[in-house]
Amino acid sequence: MSGRTFDSKDYLRNYSTNNSSSSRPDHPTDNEEDSYYNRSGHQRSLNQFTIDKDFEDTLNVALENIDQNPFVKSNRDLYNNNKNNKYLTNDNNSGDSPDNFDSYSLKSIPLDQMNSNSNGITSNNNNYGDEYNDGNVPLIPGNTPRSSSSRSSKHKPSSASTARSIWSKGVDSLINSSNRLVLGNSKRKIQLPNDGDEFRIDDENEDDMISQSRTISPHMSSSQFPGNAISNAKYNIFSFFPVILFEQFKFFFNLYFLIVALSQAIKPLRIGYLSTYIVPLAFVLSVTMMKEAIDDIQRRRRDKEQNNELYEVLGSSKQIPAKNLKCGDLVRLTKDRRVPADMVLLQSSESSGESFIKTDQLDGETDWKLRIACPLTQHISEEDLEVVKVMAQPPSKHIHSFLGKLTYGDHTTGLSVDNTMWANTVLASGTAVGIIVYTGKDTRQSMNTSTPGVKTGLLELEINSLSKILCIGVFILSVVLVACQGFAGKWYVNIMRFLILFSTIIPVSLRVNLDLGKSVYAYQIEHDDAIPETIVRTSTIPEDLGRIEYLLSDKTGTLTQNDMELKKLHLGTVSYAGDTMDLVAGYIADIGEQVKSSRRDMGTRVRDLVSTMAICHNVTPSYEDGELSYQAASPDEIAIVKFTKSVGLSLIKRDRHSLALYHEAPKRTYEYEILQVFPFNSDTKRMGIVVLDKTRDELWFLQKGADTVMMSIVQHNDWLEEETSNMAREGLRTLVVARKKLKSTVYEEFKTKYQEASMSMVNRDQAMAKVISQYLEYDLELLGLTGVEDRLQKDVKSSIEVLRNAGVKIWMLTGDKVETARCVSVSAKLIARGQYVHTVTKLNRPEIALQQIEYLKTNRDACLLIDGESLGTYLSHFKDEFFQIVVHLPAVIACRCSPQQKADVALLIREATHKRVCCIGDGGNDVSMIQCADVGVGIVGKEGKQASLAADFSITQFCHLTKLLLWHGRNSYKRSAKLAQFVMHRGLIISACQALFSICSKFEPIALYQGWLMVGYATCYTMAPVFSLVLDCDVNESLVSLYPELYKELTEGKSLSYKTFSVWCLVSLFQGLVIEGLSQTFTGLGEEMFLGLVAISYTALILNELAMVAIEINKWNKTMLIVEVLTLACYIGSIPFLGDYFDLSYVGSVNFVWQTVVILSVSLLPIWSAKAINRKLRPPNYAKVQQA
């Protein structure tokens, strides 16, 4: 808050009674109705101020030494330099004489012209002595220590340095002691002005900013800047193989098989044919490399197309490819052309300098953005553009901010993001000329592009752990077999040979099967008609959809539609909603030629509110096929403008400098000139506009914003806070609407100060905001309150209820108000009927933080409602204690959250619970949260595609998440779990056969199956039937929503656990021993019958696997049946070609047939019987549901 100048008795003697003034430039006179000093409506005079003795003494010290003021050469010099400055003149005294000039006034030296950390002097200000250099003078209290001389001085100074110290002491003490100034009996604290305090600039930081800035001019040498060629390729000719191999062999089972394959190059370790081990590994790598190569080739083709796009460059006789553009090039763009590099807009085909761009490929937002050509260059010739110079800030990744200056001749103007066109945006209207300021990797697009981290699913981590257990088991088995030989001879070689023989326990085909399975799941998700337009962007984690325990959701656009409709107006004494909106339309119809009326006249108040709503916005009307539509970045603003249109006041024209409203009743158009626009952002939470009403020749400042910031800006009232809370409880989004009439002199002064602030290269936004606050944002007339409804998404209530029954804990993280979030939570059934809501808000004292959540330790069925301030306190001081308590709650609602807080919550839940976290949102503020989650889901909504593009899965409705998790997540997890264990079973059973054969062969490391038999076993003889398990499902689709409790058992990981793994190991061991033991019983171990042994055991092994697949299938389909039959036919058909491995005469005998049947019966019947009995006695939950 800017303060006022308060006068002691000595000070009052130097002034006339009419000279008391406020630091506010438009402070009203005593006879004006709305006084800044007194918002309640009556005047207070200066003699009502009570000033303590210390303050008066301090002021006297400053006055006593004012003639030695080190900042001023002389009163006459200061007067001559500033005679046109309203702050430095006294209208009531004879301002023509410098002798009468008041050198004391603190406002004589605007602190915003001083550099608080420098030597107290600015290079462009002649008010201060050039020779002055005293770093000890504390222009701003609290940062610069007082000199000892200033503390000890008790007499009038005899030197300039002593005077400076005493003068600075006076000013410092004056400002500090102002904290004790009180107003009348109310003891209201008043703060004197601290113009330079808030936006102090560090010289070193400013020097760094300037030194790193770049100056761009046409035809300059740009060798110091990167080229403009685009390269999104992931690999090059040198990195392709190393990177691919690293990604593949970072998984233990792939690395294990690589070592086994390499060992075959050592002759003593070679077992069978080298191809037996190389071919499966080569197949895996080939599939992966082919997929990666195709993806990278496509990326390179897209890059090539963009790099070779031709652009017109001023001064060049031919068009230039995009990759050859450089900083300083003047590029002409036409409609629908991609912007090739970051540019500053110099000229537009529109006389107003306006151009629209599409930014959906940059930020995901679908609305068009308005860009303004620099006013210095809009109307100059193309030849004159050659002498333009642009000073731009260092490259930055912030797409919504830019600082720069443009110089043309002797004129310089500031540049902002409104004057830019970033690379990869598209010009949506007309033609434009721009100068390139950033190229290549310095562009905003490149700096915001990063290779997303590869997400690894929980199932793969579990499989990797099981593979390590298998490896340890193989090593132990090898050592045991060698120990049975007595460690004779080269025993270490035998250990290695046994390790190689049993390498099939960790099958190399496991990764291939899992990756192909993920592709099948992604295809099924994207082609599900019940969830249309769903996109799988990360195909490596579909199984995690079935393991979600925490769901973090945004509110607006996710749980709600982001389809706004204005439902209510409140004017303090009366509100309008529903049918009473017809009264509003009636008042608007009577606008006509208004006569001056009482402020209590309701019609006037309604007309003022609606007309302000129709003007104060950033909405642009557009006409397509004769239909009027509106475009804006905020759906709230469109809802408000549509409402004013519905009551008879339509926005029909809008450009940068003017807008027009059409009044339907008298069929009259009202013209307004737009002088300034202050757009809404998440920091200010308000937007304002300065307009000139051409009809009445009046200047108005209009503003609307959130109640939290507007309460301190509008005039005192006793209803705003209460009614805002009431509307929030109704689930309405509120905006406070206010206005203020401006004097032309005040606006001109504001315009000058605002222009100066806009030229700053450091802290520009803060400086501009300060000027707005000082000149405009105070004592606004409160017109009313708007309530906009954001309807719930389709089937949100039922979806949340189903997910809660499925055991998913739901957190809602929103930036909205506490009451609005509470209301939406109740209506969306996030908070159950009768559920206790424990509320923690405005908590900023760490010492009582833990007490606030103590109740939740013993009441875990309660819901927590917390705001961003309180959440920040817990995250800063007690994050571990906080999350240990709240992770057990069924629902948490966090309000007023920043995007970073959302991301932090997601990460901390993962760390605290080690559970799978899913985050869902629809806007750019949800991207951080989505990327930090185990599974990120983006909704394509009205806020654009930014969240969708950053997510792992993209959907169009929140209710689609239910099927995505409960059906596709269930199937993906259970299928992959069964597939992985079956592939391991396939390797274990053949290893069991090999182990028994080695034991019976006097512990010799001799291979039982060699060459094609090993390759065929892992590929064409068993792979297709085993892979067909990815089409299996254990329950019908309709039952997963009807019985969401089925999802709970998935989160426990029972489908793939140490228990299920152990069962599969026992089954594999039993079947392997039966197959190999009975085969040896029927054929013997003689060398002459070795081929017969291989034939019967291998045939039984293949048929056993086909039968095991059939036993494991829950629900048959045609594909499974066809695959089984074709695989069996393939094996039988290939037997005649296996003469090198089989005794074909034995295979053709009757003995072979009945012996194979016996082996299969002993191997399969116990397994099938145990499975059937267990299902009967202890049926799983899904079996109970199926029976029901």
Automatic annotation (TrEMBL):
Cellular localization per UniProt: Endosome membrane; Membrane
Q: What is its main location?
A: membrane
The P-type ATPase C-terminal domain extends over 949-1179
- Which cofactors is this protein said to need? Mg(2+)
Q: Where does Mg(2+) bind?
A: D554, T556, D922, D926
- Any idea which positions bind ATP? D554, K555, T556, E637, F680, K704, R733, T814, G815, D816, R896, K902, N925, D926
State the InterPro entries in the record.
ATPase_P-typ_cyto_dom_N, ATPase_P-typ_P_site, ATPase_P-typ_TM_dom_sf, ATPase_P-typ_transduc_dom_A_sf, ATPase_P-type_domA, HAD-like_sf, HAD_sf, P-type_ATPase_IV
One Pfam annotation reads PhoLip_ATPase_C
- Keywords for this protein: ATP-binding, Coiled coil, Lipid transport, Magnesium, Membrane, Metal-binding, Nucleotide-binding, Translocase, Transmembrane, Transmembrane helix, Transport
Region (Disordered) location: 1-44, 73-164
Residues in domain P-type ATPase N-terminal?
221-271
TM spans (from-to): 237-259, 271-294, 469-489, 1089-1107, 1119-1138, 1144-1168
Q: Which GO terms describe its cellular component?
A: endosome membrane; plasma membrane; trans-Golgi network
Question: Which residues, by range, are in coiled-coil regions?
Answer: 287-314
The protein's GO terms of the molecular function aspect are: ATP binding; ATP hydrolysis activity; magnesium ion binding; phosphatidylserine flippase activity
Please report the record's description of how this protein sits within the membrane. Multi-pass membrane protein
Which superkingdom? Eukaryota
Q: Could you tell me where the Low complexity compositional bias lies?
A: 14-23, 77-93, 115-136
- Which ranges carry the P-type ATPase A domain? 315-444
Can the keyword Metal-binding be found in this entry's annotation? yes
Q: Which family does it belong to?
A: Belongs to the cation transport ATPase (P-type) (TC 3.A.3) family. Type IV subfamily.
Q: What is this protein called?
A: Phospholipid-transporting ATPase
